[in-house]
Design goal:
15 strands; alpha+beta; seven-stranded antiparallel β-sheet; single chain; three-stranded antiparallel β-sheet; Phosphothreonine lyase fold; elongated
Length: about 375
């Protein structure tokens, strides 16, 4: 850990602002962050500094604020950090340098972001045999996104999120204009061949996402209110194969005691890679459902959901895990894939201005520091339990 013996400094492009000293509009925008008892305030780029503005506003907790204030004068890391963080200090410091909150000394100057992370990271390419087909699709998504003429992080995140979607053609628009047509197409509308199978185990739900999704809850095991992480199983056949396989999907999800599931509500939703998502309160129940699906859906061609962890090797089934509600409320993300694509997009943009950097590689390195295995897109065991 010789890197930790170098000099560090707080990034001089940022101003540290206590939450109480923000203007009322900013406090209202960031109100949810106060649900985190350790929240301190924000790091805000200096106005008019084009380079600094590319870094974006960053929320910080009390410990990060103290470290930032301590290192306004360049120097070694304070000794209290080692006792506070313990064996995880290298990863903590690497994240702070990757996000340009701190800068590390290199050849007489201070660097951060994509230029500095190779000093900390064990670089791997991502994808390949270990990751399977979905890892290769995810890597292709990153390489595609880094070349887009898009400088808004949120819009770039949505482009990553939607990667591997099938094109919305006039034929699909005519076939599946909205909800009732999808129900009939799947055989679960009134009088449909699979309607009794659906009603036996599932009851329809609504909610804020009803415009985009058709959703159901298990009649026996539909409770997800325990407050822990929500495990998600993605079922991704090619759109043309969905009607013939939907009865088998219903049976397998019921056998695996899925709590809830949803299907895209129109042609646009059916053409997305993550067209069917099932929810579970534990990984054990998800694995049971996945095993039942593998048996029933053998030979069904797959589309494949990027930035999810593959089950079975062909991309038909994969999984992820949403952050607990308190993590999401504190800025942790809306879902597993959005949590990832938001971070990947910011990393891609921050690396664009670094000479000789490969933004896609920096993006992989950055989310790996969060505990994500980017060879398989598997969340680490401690991802949502880290302090």
């Amino acid at each position: 850990m010789q890197i930790l013996e170098r000099g560090f400094r707080a990034n001089p492009s940022f101003d540290l602002v206590l939450f109480d000293r923000l203007d009322p509009r900013e406090r209202e925008t960031l109100a949810d962050l106060r649900k985190d008892p350790d929240f301190y305030g924000i790091l805000r780029p200096h106005p008019g500094d084009t380079k600094a503005n590319a870094l974006g506003v960053k929320s910080v907790d009390r410990e990060t604020a103290l470290l930032f204030l301590t290192l306004r004068e360049p120097g070694p890391l304070p000794s209290y950090m080692r006792s506070l963080v313990g064996d995880g200090i290298l990863r903590v410091v690497a994240r702070l340098v990757a996000d340009a909150i701190l800068e590390v000394e290199e050849d007489g100057s201070f660097i951060s972001g994509a230029a500095a992370l190779p000093l900390f990271a064990e670089r791997r390419s991502g994808g390949g045999e270990r990751g399977g087909r979905l890892a290769d699709i995810s890597l292709a998504a990153l390489r595609y996104a880094q070349d887009l003429a898009e400088d808004d992080a949120l819009m770039l995140s949505f482009r990553l999120y939607g990667y591997n979607r099938r094109p919305l053609t006039p034929a699909w628009k005519r076939l599946l204009p909205k909800g009732e047509s999808v129900l009939a197409w799947l055989g679960i509308g009134p009088g449909g061949a699979r309607r009794q199978l659906l009603d036996r185990s599932w009851e329809r739900t609504g909610g804020a996402s009803a415009e985009w999704w058709l959703s159901w809850r298990s009649r026996q095991d539909g409770d997800l209110s325990g407050g822990g992480a929500t495990w998600k199983l993605y079922v991704s056949p090619v759109p043309e194969a969905l009607p013939e396989s939907f009865g088998d999907i219903l049976e397998a999800l019921a056998a695996g005691r899925a709590a809830q599931f949803k299907v895209g509500a129109d042609a646009l939703g059916i053409l997305r890679a993550d067209k069917i998502v099932a929810y579970f309160p534990s990984f054990e129940r998800l694995a049971t459902a996945a095993e039942a699906l593998e048996t029933r859906l053998s030979g069904i061609p797959a589309q494949g959901v990027p930035f999810t962890s593959e089950i079975g090797g062909d991309g038909l089934l994969s999984w992820g895990v949403d952050p607990p509600r308190e993590e999401a409320a504190a800025g942790g993300g809306e879902s597993w894939r959005l949590w990832l694509t938001h971070r990947l997009a910011r990393a891609l943009l921050s690396a664009r201005s670094v000479p000789d950097a490969e933004p896609w590689q920096f993006a992989l390195d950055r989310v790996r520091l969060e505990g994500v295995d980017t060879d398989t897109w598997t969340p680490g065991a401690a991802l949502w339990t880290r302090s």
